[in-house]
Amino acid sequence: MEDQEETTVRNAKECQTQNGESKREQEEEGEKVEEMVVDRDMEDWNGFISEEMALGEAEEGEVVAEWRPGESVTPQHVLWLNSYTKEYLCSPDDNIYNVNFSRFKIRDLDSGAVILDIKKHCPTEIQDVIELDTSRFIQYHFSPAFLALREIGATLEFTVGSKALNRFRLIERHFFRNLLLKTFDFEIGFCIPHSRNTCEHIYCLPDLEPETVEEMIANPFETRSDSFYFVNNKLIMHHKAEYSFTPQRETDTSRESGNCQ
Asked: Is residue 9 part of a domain?
């Protein structure tokens, strides 16, 4: 597809667009702001933010109300959750932007070792077809050594349909039983239509009590996470995961379905 654009986000505040797309910079109130040109309009690129947000933290001046079924789910609502969700908070057809994930890779930042590499077949063209992906749940099998890691990089590759993504945001909530382990909040920013994108999220893993680590190892799949994806503060995707840290025989940790080129 000749008009495909490929956008890559790396680490903290670096974004780069290939196939001739340029970046412009301007001074605003003494700070440098990066912007992208799309359809002759300037769209703010929010960069890449990796930070832990306090439980229940709301934007300045905003009052967080209790969420009720049928209401729109906001970032503030999921930040108030005190446990792993029992149900999905949105349906697959809420992904009106046709965000389609094609690869997920985890690496240890200290050693550079790849811990997990899951690939999905990538189409040669980015089509505006909404795929109602029912595989919103996954189980991960890691060794106990994973819990000793301090920082990991999670690379996510995805494509976007004909609608641009404004303020694309991922909030992850990790629990062991009803204990909140950590909240991760990543602002991915703006993604142009018909684009293939790559971003790497940097996770600073929490310091856990030895007793908690032992319990997590002894009780596989009781460590869980909710991943909430927002566009313009509206929930469009909700994925769930469970984790096992039990010892297992040495296997190839990379799984591949099709080829990404």
From this structure: no
Say how far apart CA 64 and CA 68 lie, in whole Å: 12
In a domain, 199, yes or no: yes
What is the CATH classification number for the domain harbouring 91?
Answer: 2.70.50.40
- Residue 144 falls in which region: left (phi positive, over 0), alpha (psi -120 to 50) or beta: alpha
Contacts of 43 by beta carbon, 8 Å cutoff, 6+ apart? 35, 36, 37, 164, 166, 190
In a domain, 139, yes or no: yes
Q: Count how many domains the chain has.
A: 1
Has residue 116 been placed in a domain? yes
* 244, 220 Cβ separation under 8 angstroms: yes
C-alpha closest to that of 146 among 237, 95, 80, 220: 220
Sheet holding 31-38, edge to edge: 23-28, 31-38, 41-44
Taking the chain (261 residues) in consecutive chunks of 10 residues, what is each chunk's mean pLDDT?
44 35 41 35 29 37 52 90 93 93 93 90 48 71 94 94 94 96 94 94 93 96 97 95 82 43 38
Q: What is the CA radius of gyration of the chain?
A: 19
